[in-house]
Specification:
Elements: H1 30-40, H2 46-57, H3 64-84, H4 91-121
């Protein structure tokens, strides 16, 4: 059998290939639905996804520094995995992990320095 739109070979009983089915109004195939989900939630790129959540939860005051220190390397690992295997997706999640983790570390470090200076300046 051949796709009615592009002429690519398709399984028997199908009219359109995976690329043409959404354009022709056909029901999305399970593989295209899974691909769309992996673009939103990069479950194939575990370091990027975990780093993203660590970065978001690093906004919690008492444990933020520790979570941010873990989020940054996970974000870097997620970026390298996204470059090695493009179908894993997750570049945005990895960048958020890196940037938000760094911002949280800078903010917590600044607060720590200011707190230490205020203790030192007190009579």
């Amino acid at each position: 059998m051949r796709c009615l739109t592009c002429g690519a070979e398709v399984a028997e009983g199908r009219q359109y290939c995976d690329r043409c089915a959404p354009l022709a109004g056909g029901a999305p195939t399970p593989s295209s639905a899974s691909d769309a989900l992996s673009k939103i939630v990069p479950y194939k790129n575990t370091p990027a996804l975990i780093g993203y959540y660590f970065a978001v939860f690093s906004l919690i005051p008492c444990i933020g520094t520790l979570l941010a220190m873990v989020a940054i390397p996970l974000g870097v690992m997620g970026l390298s995995k996204a470059k090695e295997t493009p179908e894993a997706h997750g570049k945005v999640h990895a960048w958020i992990a890196i940037i938000l983790g760094a911002l949280v570390l800078i903010a917590h470090g600044t607060c720590g320095v200011l707190w230490a200076l205020s203790l030192r300046a007190a009579p």
